[in-house]
Design a protein that fits this description.
Length: 284
């Protein structure tokens, strides 16, 4: 028992030091890329550092595109979105189709350190890591890390590699439509394609462009209204996936009841009323 306790404390200390170091050090690999390398023995392998794009060099349009696609409350929450978790849990309890509730920060934590297994223990660690990462790194570093390690297609990781792979250009030259199309495939980059884009990806791209404009106040969207995608609802819940397990795990894994999450949700809403749309643009 004594050695188990010492081992656990040692693991926590080492993990904390690794998280702290990654505030300044760009990783060459992640837990996710290692797992994928084992699955796909024939794919191209490369260091993430080779194509790393610093935050200042990443264009605003791709920053807004991934926030619009994956985590529209990114600038308000502390690494986990209690609002989304509570709403998704309620949908699951009522037997409705359930949206995902993982934030950009949680995706960073999972991709860097964890497996893709869906269980309570893993989700609890993910939530704890996300809170720690958000507090230690800050929003800009988290977003930089996300854009440089996320998968945009089979074996295509990071915005630097993806922009050259799909559009034969550096990331800083990406057009608004190209950035939105890349963000459109993030929910499932192994099935959805940036190029050539399916009709569904094209519609999702237009949805992202409209939400980029709504979130930033910048006129990213200047196209005709597209046909509404089936099962769509408003903005951040337009695209819904059948993954009910993840939401119950997230609430239980971080020790919250649904009523706790709702109480924090109300406090967050009250505190964010003064945050205007135009002021959010200054964060980039």
């Amino acid at each position: 028992m004594k050695w188990a306790s010492i081992s656990f404390v040692g693991f926590v200390i080492i993990s904390f030091l690794i998280v702290v170091s990654l505030k300044w050090v760009n990783p060459s690999i992640t837990a996710f890329t290692l797992q994928e390398d084992w699955k796909e023995l024939g794919v191209e392998r490369y260091s993430l550092k080779e194509n790393w794009v610093d935050y200042e060099e990443i264009p605003q349009n791709i920053k807004w595109a991934v926030v619009a696609s994956e985590d529209q409350k990114y600038w308000q929450h502390p690494g986990i979105d209690l609002v989304a978790i509570a709403e998704a849990y309620q949908e699951m309890e009522e037997g409705e189709r359930v949206r995902g509730a993982s934030t950009i920060t949680q995706q960073v934590a999972k991709n860097l350190f964890l497996s893709s297994d869906k269980n309570y223990f893993r989700k609890g660690i993910e939530a704890g890591l996300a809170l720690t990462i958000d507090a230690l790194w800050g929003k800009e570093r988290v977003l930089e890390m996300y854009l440089n390690i996320v998968e945009f297609g089979p074996g295509v990781y990071g915005i630097g590699k993806a922009s050259n792979h799909f559009f034969n250009k550096d990331a800083k030259y990406l057009k608004d439509e190209e950035s939105a199309r890349m963000a459109a495939v993030l929910p499932n980059p192994k099935r959805m394609r940036v190029e050539p884009a399916s009709p569904y990806v094209q519609k999702r791209k237009d949805w992202i462009l409209r939400n980029m404009m709504n979130l930033s106040g910048i006129a990213y969207y200047n196209y005709p209204e597209p046909e509404v995608v089936k099962d769509s609802v408003q903005t951040d819940s337009m695209f819904i996936f059948d993954i009910p397990f993840i939401n119950r795990v997230e609430i239980s894994g971080i020790g919250l009841s649904l009523s706790d999450a709702r109480a924090v949700d109300k406090a967050n809403k009250d505190s964010s009323k003064t945050d205007s749309v135009m002021n959010r643009d200054l964060r980039f």
